[in-house]
Amino acid sequence: MLNKTRLLTPGPTPLPERVRLALARDMIHHRKKDFAAIMDRVQPRLQQLFGTSQPVLPLSSSGTGAMTAAVYGLFSPGEKVLVVVGGKFGERWRNIAASRHLEIQEVTVPWGHAVDPSAVEEVLDRDPEILGVLVQLSETSTGVLHPVQELGAITKKRDCLLVVDGISGVGLSPCPMDKWGIDCLLTGSQKGLMLPPGLALLALSSRAWERAAATEPGCFYFNLPKERNKLAQGQTLFTSPVNLIVGLDESLDMLLENGLEAVYAKQWALTMLTRTGVQAMGLTPYVKERFAWGITSVLVPEGLDGTKLLAIIADRFGVVLAGGQDSLKGRILRIGHMGWVDWADVLGALQAVKSSVIAMGGSCPPGDPLGKAMEAYLAALELPPGTPPPNGN
Ligand SMILES: *Cc1c(COP(=O)(O)O)cnc(C)c1O
Which residues contact 140 (CB under 8 A, 6 or more apart)? Predict the structure, then answer.
C-alpha cells in the first residue's frame, strides 16, 4: 500500500472522522423519542443551511429521489414546465419530467455555459401556462454554476415555481432559498454535506406547499404533505435512514461551527487553488465563467487519452478524479473539491495530475504551479468577509 486513497470526485466525498464515528453509533429506533430529539436538533440547522423558514424534509433516497419527489409532488401529467438543459443533470430533469408525462419546454444551453436568464424569461413571457422552471444550481457534468438568483427574480413575479437541484451546490456556494425566491431546493448527502450517499433533503416555499397540497401525488413512496406531517413529530414517513441523520447532526455542527460564510469562503478559495494550479501547469479549465465552487473541470491536453490519464492518476498516486460523461468522455477531468477536502488534498491532486501528464509524454511549462496555486488560495481566503465573489451567485 503505497498511497492513501484521495477521493476528489463530485460525490461521494471523503468523510471527517467525527462523522464516521457518529455513523458507527448503536442503532436507535426511528419511532422513539431519542431519534425525535435528534430530528428536532437537526431541523433548525437544516433551515439555516437552506436559508429558509420552511421545513426541510429528509428523504431516504439518493439525490435523484428528491428530484423525482419534486416533479411528482408539484406537477400533474399534462402540465407545462421549462427545463434548463446544459448537461447530464439537466437531461435528468427532462427525463423525470417526461416520465411524469409533463409537457416540456426546453431551454438548451451549450455544455460548459450557464443559462442566460433572459432566454428563460422570453419563453415564460411567450407561454404563461408554464408552471415551473427546473434547473441545477451547479451542473456537475460540466462544472457550471447557473444563475439561480436571477432566475428567482423572474419566476417569483409569475405563477411559476423555481425548482432547483442543488445536489452539488448546497453547502458549497450560497443559495439562500427564501431570499432568492426558490420554490423547491433539494440536495443529497454525498456532495457538500460530508456524508455517505443515501439521504436527500428537500424544502418547498409556501406557494409550492399550496401546489403540493393540490396535486395528486404521483407515487406512493414520495408524498411530500404526508412527509411534512411526520416531520412535525420528529419522524419520517417510512423507516428513517437513522445513521445518516445521526451523521448529519455531526456534519451540520461542523458546517455551521464558524458560520456558512466561512464554508463558502473556503470553497471559493479551493476553487481558486484548483483553477490557478491547473492553469499554471498549462492546462485549460473547461468552464470560463460562472464555474461551480465544488468542482473544477479541466480539458485533457490535446493528444492524451483522458481515460488512461485518469487511470494513471489513480493507480500511481491514489488520487481518484472523475472523467467526462457522454460527449465529454475522455475530454475532461473533473476534480471534486467538495465534502471533507482541504488545500493539501487539492495540492496532492494537482501534483498527481502534473506528474501523470508528464508520464504520458505531455509537457508542462517550467515554473512552480503548486506555489502559484497556494498563493491564489491564500489571497482568496483573505478577502474581507462578505465580499461578493467575482463570478456571480
Ligand atoms: C450527483 C448529482 C445528482 C445525482 O444524485 P444521485 O445522488 O446520484 O441520485 C443530481 N444532480 C446533480 C447536480 C448532482 O451533482
Answer: 10, 11, 87, 88, 89, 167, 168, 292, 295, 334
**How many independent structural domains does the chain possess?**
2
User: Does residue 149 sit in the same domain as residue 189?
Assistant: yes
What mean pLDDT comes out for the span 39-56? 98
From the alpha carbon of 11, which atom of ligand 1 is closest? 1
Cell of 67: 428530484
CA of residue 176 to ligand 1 center, whole Å: 20
Q: What is the pLDDT of residues 50-90, one digit of tens each?
A: 999 999 999 999 999 999 999 999 999 999 999 999 999 99
The ligand 1 site (C-beta within 6 Å) comprises 10-11, 62-64, 89, 136, 138, 140, 165, 167-168, 188, 191, 197
Give the CATH number, domain containing residue 359: 3.90.1150.10
H helices of 102-167, where? 117-126, 148-155
Residue 228 CB neighbours (<10 A): 17
Structure-block grid coordinates of residue 388: 461578493
Q: Which ligand 1 atom is nearest residue 190's CA?
A: 7
What is the best residue among 59, 134, 140, 187 to mutate for testing ligand 1's pocket, by most ligand atoms within 8 Å of CB? 140
Q: What is the mean pLDDT of the chain?
A: 96
**CA separation for the pair 248, 254 (Å, rounded):** 10
Which pLDDT tens digit goes with each residue over 155-211?
999 999 999 999 999 999 999 999 999 999 999 999 999 999 999 999 999 999 999
How remote is the CA of residue 190 from the centroid of ligand 1, in Å?
9
Show the domain range for 367.
259-381
